[in-house]
Write a structure and sequence with these properties.
With 217 residues, the protein is an alpha/beta fold. 38% of the residues lie in helices and 16% in strands. It has one domain: Rossmann fold, CATH 3.40.50. A seven-stranded parallel β-sheet has the order 3-2-1-4-5-6-7, with helices on both faces.
């Protein structure tokens, strides 16, 4: 049975991914900041294991790695993030740009113990730097920083033996995306899963969209 780890799984895309992987018979490790109040995550049937994680907390990252020390993660998807409207830019950057790399590297041993050895960091097209003079805003700058950090580490991750990408999940009808967004959580999650299923060495280190198109940096 393959195993997935979904970081940031209490709602939205993360919750959708947990449900779809569990429905297909995968073992799923799902993280939330409030494991004592899992909400809809706690209602998902299947082989689902809920773990506490505040992604910016290094001690909690290490505790999660210890909890998974005997397991192997075929597919790791880091979905956690904030829009950060009322937050300082430094905190938004800490959560959106720094923590995903840290979490992936903290769980790397579990990924490398698996058969598939795949990692995806959920980014955004709002963090693409292409186009002259385009203002990215606080959220976009944090995602651009994540993309830059990913490109700085992806060769080392490939050398270690894993396949990794960043994925734009689309404009999704979630709390962050709003009700006017163009695609549903189910569509986005299915697309992300398809990208991960098709992921091979030719895709590694690149920026993809949920529907399988390569996105410019």
């Amino acid at each position: 049975m393959p195993t997935a780890a979904i970081i940031g799984a209490s709602r939205g895309i993360g919750l959708g991914l947990v449900g779809q992987y569990a429905d297909d018979g995968w073992r799923v490790h799902a993280t939330t900041r409030t494991p004592d109040r899992p909400g809809a995550l706690g209602a998902i049937r299947g082989d689902v294991h809920i773990h506490p994680l505040e992604v910016a907390d290094r001690a909690q990252q290490q505790a999660l790695a210890a909890a998974l020390a005997g397991d192997a993660i075929d597919v790791l998807i880091h979905n956690a993030g904030v829009y950060g409207t009322l937050m300082r830019a430094a905190k938004v950057n800490r959560i959106n740009a720094e923590a995903p790399i840290e979490v992936a590297e903290t769980l790397m041993d579990a990924v490398l113990r698996s058969e598939q050895k795949k990692i995806a960091l959920i980014t955004s097209q709002m963090g693409a730097r292409h186009g002259s003079g385009r203002s990215l805003g606080k959220y976009g700058e944090s995602k651009a920083a994540l993309n830059d950090r990913f490109r700085a580490v992806e060769r080392g991750w490939r050398a270690a033996g894993c396949l990794a990408v960043v994925i734009h999940p689309g404009w999704v009808r979630t709390d962050m995306g709003g009700t006017s967004a163009s695609i549903s959580v189910e569509e986005s999650a299915r697309g992300i899963r398809r990208v991960m299923e098709d992921l091979d060495e030719s895709h590694h280190g690149r920026f993809w969209t949920w529907d399988g198109r390569e996105h410019p940096w």
